[in-house]
Automatic annotation (TrEMBL):
Composition skew (Acidic residues), residue ranges: 220-230
Chain segments carrying region Disordered: 220-242
Species annotation: Candidatus Cryptobacteroides avicola
Phylogenetic placement of the source organism: Bacteria, Pseudomonadati, Bacteroidota, Bacteroidia, Bacteroidales
Protein name: Uncharacterized protein
């Protein structure tokens, strides 16, 4: 803003010199201003809600003239020198204008005023010597013929609708939320997944009346702790009824006349949409926002084993919303499967839409790359953030370990078997029959041999695992009595030419197919002991054994072995107590 205080100081200095040097000295005469006129200009084309046009005309010759506009209902009569110098602090608009004889007046338009507001125009003209006139005043009031403009913003699921002036809301026109699934084909044409009315207690107005906040109802965070009984929510409150899904984009339509300003001007209708455009992504318009995304898990995997590797592994999602069938995977989708047998493991990387895929709204299916070894642990892992639901929420990390089993039942091990084996002590081949039946005492195992290795009335206990296809027999069991001698069963440990009974590890027989039992996992033996439990010596040491259930067809089990390879010495045997 141009200032004219310097010229005014020169005028005051000239007057002071005249007094100092007396009447003989020449001085600049002080000339007072004749004042200034303010005339409002009516312009129908002007936006009179926020604009004023007026003309300033000094009544005589002037050096400068100035004006200031203040929002005030009353004439405050500011000091003329303050207005003249452009220093009115409360002015919403002001200016200093150079007067010329060629252009003795000025028509001025000021924009950006508040509608329906009282203002005062103050004007001052300076004389040719810079002496300001008294202040002229012209009051005016802006009109309010235009509907208030709407602005919107959102943060943390709170939508803010603001206006340039105070407004009131028409509650007879309820507000509604429409929400959209960003991973659906519906959004390609702007079709929402659902909508619901916003509860009245979610809509608040600011003290100034020009800002309204709408808290969009969303699902409350789940509490793992057991909840106490609570009072049901009041009807029509935000706690009752629909809530916005996590991750969903939402829009709010405003019906015509939803808000009015103090002059009765009603807001125009606002139609809001969300559309997915190829190459551009999500394109919202109008009033919109988006709920925060969340993560979800998978339902507890009940299965612990499987016996058909070509059958897909199906996992159910435990999220609140349907899985996306159109855009199911993120760009970082990752899944693996690991086959582990003992200390050996093989890792495979699975490919989305090929090795694993979303088959419907709630299930994902994994396909195994090849057959695992029987008895192997198969671990399937899906990385967090791999699978999206229709609102863009993604999965937590998931993993499950299954046993690739034979899928047997307990009935598969019960029956009468024909067996054959070779005694490594004597080189003699033994054969005969044995019976495996349900155990009469579960604390020793779930099956028992009622006949074993030619001994009648035997009671040797074992545990059959139908998943792993194994029959484990605990070591150091006595299972038969011949006179004053007990016959025992146990695992053997070979060390050089010495052999000892293993008191820790069971003997594990395998069932590679239903009705066929084989042993090739080490050595097991039969030994004799006194009735007091003192071990006397081995009567048999075996490293190959096959038993086939009656009415079961099987290839003969063979293994290269001989008595010489056993290198059994019967004179050095550890002494242990029997299990029973």
């Amino acid at each position: 803003m141009k200032k004219i205080l310097t010229y005014m100081s020169v005028v005051v200095l000239a007057a002071g010199c005249a007094e100092m040097y007396g009447p003989e000295q020449e001085s600049t005469p002080v000339v007072k201003s004749d004042g200034i006129e303010i005339a409002l200009v009516s312009d129908d084309k002007a936006d009179t809600d926020s604009t004023v046009t007026f003309t300033l005309t000094p009544k005589g010759e002037a050096l400068y003239y100035s004006y200031a506009i203040e929002a005030s209902a009353q004439d405050s009569k500011p000091d003329s020198s303050v207005v003249y110098s452009g220093a009115l602090q409360t002015a919403v608009a002001d200016s200093v204008i150079k007067w010329t004889a060629e252009k003795p007046s000025a028509t001025i338009t000021v924009k950006g005023l508040m509608p329906n507001t009282q203002y005062q125009i103050y004007a001052v003209a300076g004389s040719p010597t810079g002496v300001p006139s008294s202040v002229s005043v012209q009051p005016f009031k802006t009109t309010d013929n235009v509907a208030p403009a709407i602005k919107s913003d959102y943060d943390a699921n709170v939508l803010t609708i603001s206006f340039p002036e105070a407004v009131t809301r028409n509650k007879d026109l309820p507000l509604a939320v429409k929400y959209y699934g960003m991973n659906t084909t519906n959004i390609d044409t702007g079709i929402p997944e659902g909508e619901f009315q916003i509860p009245e207690d979610s809509i608040k107005v600011s003290a100034s009346g020009n800002s309204w906040t709408i808290s969009i109802p969303v699902a409350a965070e789940e509490d793992d702790e057991e909840e106490d009984e609570v009072t049901p929510p009041a009807e029509g409150s935000a706690a009752e009824g629909h809530v916005l899904p996590e991750g969903a984009i939402y829009t709010v339509d405003l019906p015509e006349g939803a808000f009015k300003d103090n002059a009765g001007n009603a807001t125009e209708a606002v139609t809001s949409t969300v559309v997915y455009e190829e190459g551009l992504g999500i394109s919202p318009s109008g009033i919109y926002g988006q709920n925060d995304a969340s993560t979800y898990g998978f339902a507890k995997f009940e299965a612990t084993s499987f016996n058909d590797w070509e059958q897909p592994v199906v996992v159910e999602a435990a999220g609140k919303y349907a899985l996306s069938l159109d855009y199911p995977f993120s760009k970082t989708a990752a899944a693996t499967v690991v086959y582990k047998t003992g200390s050996k493991s093989i890792t495979y990387t699975l490919t989305a839409d090929s090795d694993f895929e979303v088959t419907d709204a709630s299930h994902i299916v994994f396909k195994l790359p090849e057959a695992p070894e029987l008895g192997a642990d198969v671990t399937i892992t899906l990385a967090a953030g791999s699978v999206q639901d229709i609102y863009g929420n993604v999965n937590d990390a998931w993993t499950a370990t299954l046993k690739y089993s034979y899928g047997y039942t307990m009935k598969d091990v019960y029956g009468t078997y024909s067996y054959s084996c070779i005694n490594g002590l004597t080189g003699q081949q033994n054969s005969g029959q044995m019976v495996i039946t349900e155990s009469d005492d579960p604390k020793y195992g779930n099956v028992m041999f009622t006949s074993f290795m030619g001994y009648d009335e035997t009671f040797l206990y074992g545990t059959f695992d139908p998943v792993a296809g194994t029959l484990s027999v605990e070591t150091l069991q006595d299972f038969a009595i011949e006179g004053d001698v007990m016959i025992g069963f146990g695992s053997l440990i070979l060390s050089g030419n010495n052999v000892s009974l293993d008191g820790e590890n069971p003997t594990v027989f395998n069932m590679p197919e239903a009705g066929r039992i084989v042993f090739n996992n080490g050595y097991f033996g039969l030994f004799t002991a006194t009735l007091q439990g003192q071990i006397q010596g081995l009567t048999g040491a075996f490293t190959m054994f096959e038993a086939v259930k009656e009415n079961t067809v099987s290839a003969k089990y063979t293994q290269k072995s001989s008595a010489a390879e056993m290198r059994v010495v019967t004179g050095n045997i550890d002494t242990h107590l029997f299990v029973r």
